Amino acid sequence: MNDLIFITGNQSKADYLAKWLGMPIPHQKVELEELQSLDLHAVTEDKARRAYAAVQKPVLVEDVALTFHALGRLPGTLIKWFLEELGVEGLCKILQGFDDRSATASIVYGLFDGETFRTFEAHVPGKVALEPQSFDEDNGWKNNLSWNAVFIPDGSTKTYAAMSDEELEPFSHRAKAIAKLREYLESIK
Q1: How far is the C-alpha of 36 from the C-alpha of 40, rounded, in Å?
Q2: What's the CATH number where 179 sits?
Q3: Dist CA 148 CA 143 (whole Å)
Q4: Three-state SS at 106
Q5: Peptide linkage before 170 cis (omega within 30 of 0)
Q6: How confident is the model over 16-37, as a mean pLDDT?
């Protein structure tokens, strides 16, 4: 799929994808109206179809969710809006008064070639930190402007944002989904 375009305006996401995929994929920012739903698959498929309509080439899109189990399906796919309104400190504080701080980080990459929609996803269980943790402001999207500063995957004592790339790899929902995408792309060469 030589003409595949990753739809993102976030250079860090494009760099991360290329690193873990082992190959660069051109990326392009496309302003898309985004479906508001707690269904991660529905959001991703809608985004892929809208992106394809805009660029008329095979597209790869991604969407994420961070679900706090004490809050049912919230924030889920609405995490961006929760983060914008509450900040990372507020994400930690929202669970004050709850015994359950468990959470699941989820990602779905959607590939749409104009005919077939395919998904590559991963879900990582963990918990919400009592306070944000990060280690390096120059570390792209893994800083305090991201929910990565509040999510601690099971098996770790650090948030995603406080981990180096080497520490992050075995815990990363993104890396797990990209491995599935890589396997598919290699199978169609």
Answers
A1: 10
A2: 3.90.950.10
A3: 7
A4: strand
A5: no
A6: 91
Q: Which residue has the tokens 């991201």?
A: 146
Q: Take residue 167 and report the two structure tokens written for it.
A: 């520490």
d(CA 52, CA 182) in angstroms, rounded, equals: 20
How many domains does one find in the chain?
Answer: 1
- List, for residues 14-23, the tens digit of each pLDDT value: 988 998 898 8
pTM: 0.92
Confidence check: pLDDT of 142 > 50: no
Nearest to residue 112, comparing CAs of 62, 59, 61, 51? Answer: 59
Range of the domain at 153: 5-187
Q: What is the rounded distance in angstroms from the CA atom of residue 6 to the CA atom of residue 144? A: 25
Buried b (16+ CB within 10 A) or exposed e, 107-116: bbbbbbeeee
